[in-house]
Amino acid sequence: MRDWADFSLSENDDGATTLALKGSLRVHALGDLDRRISQRRGQFTRIDMSGVTDIDTSGAWIVMSHAREHGLEIVGESDMAKRLFTAIGRIEDHTEKAEPLPRSNIIIRSIAELGEVVINWGHGFLRSVAFFGALVSAFGRTIRRPSRLRGTALVHHMQHVGVNSLWIVGLMSFLIGIVIAQQGAVQLQQFGAEIYTINLTGRLSLRELGVLMTAIMVAGRSGSAFAAQIGTMKLTEEVDAMRTIGVDPMESLVVPRVLAAMIMMPLLGFYSSVLAIIGGAFISNFALDIPFLTFLQRTQEVVPISDVWISLIKAPFFALIIALAGCYQGMQVDTNAEEVGARTTQAVVTAIFTVIVLDAFFAVFFTKIGWK
Question: Among 28, 58, 214, 293, which residue's Cβ finds the most Cβ atoms within 10 Å?
Answer without folding.
Answer: 214
